[in-house]
Design goal:
It catalyses: [protein]-peptidylproline (omega=180) = [protein]-peptidylproline (omega=0). This protein is mainly alpha-helical and about 200 residues long. The protein contains seven helices and two strands; from the N terminus they run αββαααααα.
Length: about 200
């Protein structure tokens, strides 16, 4: 998701750079945007690359904003979650605003904390939509069946009982010797099983 936002921010920055500050904000198709020793980059080639590379992600974000902002109104839980995430991010930069802003611009492609809040809000609402979809589409009995079949799987359990050969007529020493013999048999059997028998 961070990649999408980086790409969106890059597209926005390039568009702002390309349009400039003059009255004529559009570049003609054959207008040179960048000129280097190796050649030129024309406006139509730039627009084509921007549209192909970033257009879909920008469109998806816009659609998600429209759908999710309507269905999932911002509430106190969302605000608390976003605030906690931002505080955690700021703590990584020792609450240095300048370092924090540079990091979110570089790594997340957002210009300021407000854009970051918007991005985190969209992510939060996307997660709510996913949870709703999963709850609506998967029944509890299906989850239990999957758990029983796949997580636990088929198990075969066997029980081996080794008991000492004792009776009431034996002396304490004989009973103790029989228990030691049974213990030795059990230890030998465990060793065999550990060795792959």
């Amino acid at each position: 998701m961070m990649k999408i936002f980086k790409l969106t921010a890059c597209a926005l920055i390039v568009c702002l750079l390309v349009t400039g500050c003059g009255n004529n904000a559009e570049l003609e198709d054959n207008h040179t945007v960048v000129k280097t020793d190796e050649g030129e980059i024309k406006a139509d080639a730039l627009y084509e690359k921007l549209r192909d590379k970033y257009g879909i992600s920008v469109l998806v974000d816009m659609i998600d904003h429209q759908l999710f902002d309507e269905k999932y109104k911002t509430d106190e839980t969302e605000e608390e979650t976003i605030n906690a995430q931002i505080e955690q991010m700021k703590a990584q930069y020792n609450n240095d605003e300048e370092a924090f802003n540079a990091a979110i611009t570089q790594y997340l492609g957002v210009e300021d904390e407000n854009e970051l809040r918007d991005m985190l809000s969209l992510e939060y609402k996307r997660n709510l939509a996913i949870e709703d979809h999963v709850q609506d589409s998967i029944a509890d009995d299906e989850i239990q069946k999957y758990y029983d079949d796949e997580i636990i799987g088929d198990m075969s359990v066997r029980h081996i009982l080794i008991s000492p050969d004792t009776n009431d007529d034996m002396t304490d020493e004989e009973k103790e010797a029989a228990e030691e013999d049974a213990k030795k048999q059990a230890e030998d059997l465990i060793k065999q099983l550990d060795d792959g028998a």
